[in-house]
Amino acid sequence: MRAVLDVRNLTTRFSTPTGALVAVNDVSFSLREREILGLVGESGSGKSVTLRSLIRLLPSIASQSGEVIWQGHDILKMSPKEVRAVRGGQISMIFQEPTTALNPVLPIGLQIDENLRAHTTLSHRERLNRARELMDLVGIPEAARRLAEYPHQFSGGMKQRAMIAIALASNPRLLLADEPTTALDVTIQDQILKLILDLRDELAMSVIFVTHDLGVVAATCDRMAVMYAGRIVETGTIADVFARPMHAYTRGLLGSVPRVGTERSPLMSIEGTPPGLSSIPRGCAFHPRCDFATNVCRVSQPVTETVEPEHDVACHNSLAVLEAGSPVQ
Amino acid sequence: MSIALYRTASLPRPLIFGGAILAASLLLAIFPSVFAPYDPNAFDYAALLQGPSTAHLMGTDNFGRDVLSRVIHAYTIDMQIAVFATVFPFLIGTVIGALVGYVGGISETIFGRIVDAVITFPFLVLVIAIVSILGPGLLNMYIAVGVVGWVFYARIIAAEVKVQKRLDYADAGRAMGYTHMRIIFRHLLPNAITPAVVYWMTDMALAILLGSSLGYLGLGAQPPAAEWGVQIADGKNFMATAWWISVFPGLAIVLTGLGFSLTGDGLAEVLRTKK
Amino acid sequence: MSDVVISAAGLRKSFPLPHGLIDRISGKVPLAVHALNDVSFTLHRGETLGIVGESGCGKSTLARCLVRLHELDQGEIHFEGTDVASLSGPARRAFNRRVQMIFQDPYSSLNPRMTVRVILTEALSVHAMRPAVEIPARIAELLDLVRLPQDSADRYPHEFSGGQRQRIGIARALAVEPEILVADELVSALDVSVQAQVVNLLLDLQQRLDLTVLFVAHDLRLVRHISHRVAVMYLGKIVEIGPTEALFAASQHPYTRALLAAAPELDPSKRSRKIAAKGELPSPIHPPKGCLFNTRCPHAFDRCYAERPQLTDRSVGHQAACHLTNFDPKDSLK
User: Fold this and answer.
1) E-assigned strands of chain A?
2) pLDDT tens for each residue of B173-185
């Protein structure tokens, strides 16, 4: 399958009064048509900044380098006007907090209409029909009535659906989802995840799904990329990474999640806490917390290697990790 | 009541400047005779209404008194006004505000009405009214300011305590079985007091202005005491010919006020809760 | 193990919504959020009882009522046979010492102006746990117990990470040597890798200190991992309660089954496109008549709209509140 998005050596820095912080460090991945890629990591891993970097949705203190090739064009080289056309047009984004991402003083219908006006040439009447269609598509009942309602009249799950409707208004080819279900209850999360899967099939979109929840990844994504301290440490298909993790961090994350059959026994935890951006350790950033760390990990940053087909890892001791086996099997 | 001062790499600049001004002011207030070149109340009929010169850096007034010496001696009274006109409102307001904020309910409603009553009157008019009843003089001025001033502190503290009360650490205190008084004064208040302390600094500057205004009107410090407001009033008839009589005390007010305001700004930064 | 330490019967708690003058004049009925609707359960010495449910199910309210941060509208909580609501003065302080709560938010649950030493000293001295001279040694012991470095004592909460702050919260609770810990969403604000550390710590402490734990959480996987028994709450009511094994392997309430189906598993091969539970949580201001789950239940029939089912025995120690019985364990929703 063809890659729709190709990210090469993407680096995002924030200049702060105390010096430059590297939030995204030399990140490369590609995304295929109709694929859902999970971008997994803990707080401060750079997963959300990576997502935002793709469409240059960053504060002014950020500077970027590398390439983000979208349909043959490098988004990082586009003029602001061209970026705006892509953003919200071919590439849409949904956020973690639908409450703050929706404008509280505008009815939902108007917010959908706004996006339709910006990215389509439909007439007023056609836009109204399209808005109703979109509401149906995302599973909001009584579309005609609810278009006139304001965000506060929607429940959390319905707000997230409304936000998806707005994002879909422009017929995007790629949906960027930044922890869209983290703020939701588990039964509502389940509905939204399945909605995203259905929409991917119906609209033939690609999706990049940022999350910290490995369960959500297992239930939704086709491939996954694990991030730690601003770098992608492991990439592969869901089945491969879950069955044969090759990075100690991935393995530790999988072991940190309680699973059936190990009740009331200690979990395989990772000692310590994820590092802050200003204090990323030398060598492999994970080495202070790593059970597999050897001397080389303290001094040299591992390069990303393709160890198995479609399974890349940046770890000096990937074979030892592989041998130790997956905690979820 | 303990305010933890966090170790910071360097103190904020406003605090350094403000603190320096206040330290100098305090020094002058405590030891005025050391710094004043003349007796502030000594008449010198040989040197009436003289402009600034090397003998009299700030000139002399219509009784031949040295303006510089009077400005320096006025520090004693004006710094006293700054402290005494505000410290009681601060203490009373803090305690009442903390209780009102914590207890809420009916006490809050009653307090709200008191606030409404106080803020609908101009502060100065209210104080003048009370002083006119009690009679002029510094002590009565402190009483008048205290009767009204605590409300402003209480309002700030009550609002802040109400916010802090909702945080889990307050509940944690209750779940630990701590008494209400311990929770209010040991836990909530240290976290709620910063805005009141900052306001206190501004209020001290305002108190000097108020003291001077009352002095000017003849309701505060009584002549011949050296007090900036009194001095400005003394010079008002000579504005066109001997500006220095009023202008230098005025500058002293501005400088001291600046000292308090800068200190307030700096304290706000230092006392800010780290998250 | 079967020694009952806390028994709760018929707990009800509602929070009135603002009812202004204009509402009163226009004759509006005062509204209230019904957080607890007739909750009863027992807690046995040495066990971990997990309380699981989605937002608005009343699990946090229940936790707070247990340590008397909220007063009940109706019902009674008995601690070792004594009605908790009747306690006052020293007896109440003693109760507060023996039943401790740990809070969800590692950022707001510690006083930002107190060092760890001050926080722990306060707990130790208010309850006179140790004479003043022994306090420093006890603080060192407590830090050791929750695996914080000794130099933590003189630092402020903002100098710690979320996981470390939760350890401080645990140390504060343990300082007064409680018998029961009520943990409200103890790890839900933490990163996955840090969650595991805190869960391991809790399991270890429970064993070493012989603690009884009420573990309140929304994460089914966590509750399952940690608890001996689990109670599932929905709209302020326990809909199913039982031994962890039985409850997860053969759940007897459609809501429990929906929760189980909706919780994403760590197994990519067990994917399903079927939605676990349709619809959304009804408003806790106007809970449905009859069974609380009837608006979302795939099995609802006439009786469910007319009569609210009560908890009935399904197997040993396993109760569910559903008019239907005999759910086939193999007939999973997946």
Assistant:
1) 3-16, 19-32, 36-40, 62-70, 73-74, 91-94, 174-178, 206-211, 223-228, 231-237, 305-308, 311-313
2) 999 999 999 999 9
Residues linked to residue A10 through DSSP beta bridges, in sequence order: A27
B175 and C108 within 8 Å at the Cβ level: the answer is no
Q: Which of residues 227-246 of A touch C (CB under 8 A)?
A: 238-239, 242
Domain containing residue B203: CATH number: 1.10.3720.10
Q: Which of A47, A140, A181, A187 to mutate: most C Cβ within 10 Å?
A: A187
pLDDT score of C334 more than 50: no
Domain boundaries, chain C: 251-334
What per-residue confidence (pLDDT) applies to A151? Answer: 92
pLDDT band at residue C2, thresholds of 50, 70 and 90? low
Sign of CA dihedral C177, C178, C184, C185: positive
- Are C153 and C167 contacting, i.e. CB atoms less than 8 angstroms apart? no
**B20, part of any domain:** no
Cβ(C304)–Cβ(C295) below 8 Å: no
Q: Do C221 and A186 lie within an 8 Å CB cutoff?
A: no
* C223-258 pLDDT, tens digit each: 999 999 999 999 999 999 999 999 999 999 999 999
Q: Which residues share a beta bridge with C319? A: C241, C313
pLDDT score recorded for residue B165: 94
The domain tally of chain B equals 1
Model confidence, pTM: 0.87
- What are the chain C neighbours of A267 within 8 Å (beta carbons)? 196, 199-200, 225
Query: Concatenated DSSP letters for A258-301?
Result: --TT-TTS---PPPS-PPPGGGPPSSSTTGGG-TT--HHHHH-P
CB contact under 8 A, A190 and C277: yes
Question: To 5 degrees, how large is the angle CA A252–CA A324–CA A312?
Answer: 70
Using the beta-carbon criterion (under 8 Å), do A190 and C199 form an inter-chain contact? no
* Residue B174 in contact with partner chain C when CB distance is under 8 A: yes
Nearest-neighbour CA in chain C from B21: distance (Å): 29
Whether the CB of C165 is below 8 Å from some CB of chain B: the reply is no
Inter-chain CB proximity B172 and C104 less than 8 Å: no
Any C CB within 8 A of A192 CB: no
CB contact under 8 A, C113 and B275: no
Cα–chain center distance at C168: 20
Q: Tell me, what's the ipTM? A: 0.91
Q: Which residues of C touch A254 (CB under 8 A)?
A: 266
